[in-house]
Amino acid sequence: MADPLRLGVLLSGGGRTLENILREIDGGRLAGLAEVAVVIASRHGIRGIAIGEAAGAGVHVVRRKDYEKVDAYSEAMARLLDEARVDLACLAGFLSYWIVPERYAGRVMNIHPALLPSFGGKGMYGHHVHEAVLARGCRVSGCTVHFVTNEYDAGPIVLQRSVPAYAEDTPERLAARVFTEECEAYPEAIRLFAEGRLRLADGIVHIDESGYQRPEGA
What we know:
This protein is of the alpha/beta class. It folds into two domains: 1-104, 3-Layer(aba) Sandwich (Rossmann fold); 110-218, Rossmann fold (3-Layer(aba) Sandwich). 31% of the residues lie in helices and 24% in strands. It has five helices and nine strands; from the N terminus they run E-H-E-H-E-H-E-E-H-E-E-H-E-E. Helix 1 crosses helix 5 and helix 4 packs across helix 5 (171-194). The radius of gyration is 17 Å and the shape is globular. The two termini are 28 Å apart.
């Protein structure tokens, strides 16, 4: 059996997405397929740090303001991923911009709380996204797992899952509905990567369908 996929999780907040990944590793669809090798936080004092430490992962805090230039900051991030021998970096509510080096092209994923390419780009994260969706009167929202490039939310799409959006929704209610789908989509995308079923061609991600069972509702 191949060694588990080594994950690097990058976060800036409460760590709910990290918790979900760890649950899937502990006994879900990522059992035996992946492990969290390192957690990188963009600031001190956040709950995600404690979650990473409790899981036994190497935990580091790398703050953008400690580096004069984004290139130096980005290299510090990549160096930690290198040292942990990370196969796939997973952004999990990570709010600092970093330049993905060429050696990590196709090896960094993110989950966005909307159906890209709608409601993406700089400044579109968290409650800002859900407020914008409702302000536009959308009837459908959801989440998108995509590979990360050096343009905000513009990387190739891996998976999407949708939810209804109601006129009477608050951003908090819509966010909760979307996060339920995030908890399905992100582990599924990681599993497909671990199994070597994702192929990128001409900016489009293709999924090897051999033996692939789509999750209910996908």
